[in-house]
Amino acid sequence: MSHPHPTPQQSRILGARLRAARSELGWSQEKVALQAGISLQHLSLLERGLSNGRTKSPANPRLGVLLNLAKALTIDIGHLIEPLRIDYSGSQAEEGHRSSSPEHPQGT
């Protein structure tokens, strides 16, 4: 089974949400990176929606990184990922609607 990957647009939305949460606190990237236990370069890439600055591939952070960032920014992880729903059939789901999948059938 192929695993869905975030689209460039989804990665940019995630980055914008990280940047906005950091700005609300008035924190530098250095402070957030230190609090979350990641490198400044990693945070900078994530805020730009990238996983690699050279290849410009979309950000696809691990769950642990997202959890650490949410904790550092004192926000719920859902704030970072809720609008980024992925349709497991391969197309992006409409915002606000759950896609059908074997684990999450439509209407449940």
Task: Write a structural description.
It contains five helices and two strands, in the order αααββαα. The chain is mainly α and 108 residues long. A two-stranded antiparallel ribbon has the order 1-2. The protein is globular.
Q: Which regions contain 5 or more consecutive residues with pLDDT less than 50? A: 91-108
What is the molecular shape?
Answer: globular
Tell me the structural class: mainly alpha
N to C succession of SSEs: HHHEEHH
Q: Could you give the count of β-strands?
A: 2
N/C terminus separation: 23 Å
Task: List the defining traits of the structure above.
globular, 5 helices, single chain, mainly alpha, two-stranded antiparallel sheet, 108 residues, disordered C terminus
Question: Helix and strand layout, with pairings?
Answer:
Elements: H1 8-25, H2 29-36, H3 40-47, E1 50-52, E2 57-58, H4 63-72, H5 77-81
Antiparallel strand pairs: 1-2
Short structural summary:
With 108 residues, this protein is mainly alpha-helical.
